[in-house]
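Record type: monomer structure entry
Structure origin: computed from sequence
Chain ID: A
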Amino acid sequence: MAVGVTVGVLVVSGLLHRSLAAHIEGALGRSVPLRAPLSTLPLRLGAWEGRDVPVDERARRIAAEDDFLNREYRDRATGRTVGLYVGYIGRPRSALWHRPEICYPVHGLEQVSRQRFLVTTEAGESVPSLLYEFRSTTFDGPRVRVMATFIINGRVVEDLTGANQFNVRRVNLLTRRTAYVARVQCALEASGDAEEDLRLLSDFGKTIIGPTLEIMPKEGVESAAGGVEGQERLASRMASCVGSEVDLRQVFRNPG
């Protein structure tokens, strides 16, 4: 009898190991979809008129994002333009390092400053962001002001600190997570009037954040490993394999 129980436990443990492996593969490979593609963001936003700007294919491959948007918006009142980049990652990642303090120096610009910057949306909500200033390393080169904010599971934050929990090496299959990250980056060539530059960035930021949030995945989307209930059942059944007799027919009848 003891031999039979031991064999049964080993067989079921093997089955549950394969089942857990399949759940992990699903969690790492499945991308949480947007409600609509980023390309559906309006080209006309209040006083701003946009146009799509091509992105270098090599840069696309390095970013490895599930969806992206690269545009230039022109303010009809002043004629000045703001560059907009929105990148979306809908699956856990081992590295989420695409942010201004890394990307701009790669392109020959050095960071001059970084500070917290609050943008008030059209709905009256305060959105945290980081404001950067970069300058060219060449003589009399341009200066660029960049406003960056991130959306992690429906929450707008100023940096990627909270995204560490979605590292593929730390995926928690027993919790309810949507595991998506979006970065919203607005860039403006600096003028001699810093106050006007910040006004324009703030005006554009408050205009674009709302529509961007609207196409993010719905809050409460279950994680990619079969949902919370399925994961809890799996954990419970794995625990029950230790030191107890197992009904093989029940496992085969209800593998999920």
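Annotation 1: Residues 5-13, 19-26, 167-176, 220-256 have pLDDT under 50 and may be disordered.
Annotation 2: The chain has two domains: 2-28+224-253, 34-214.
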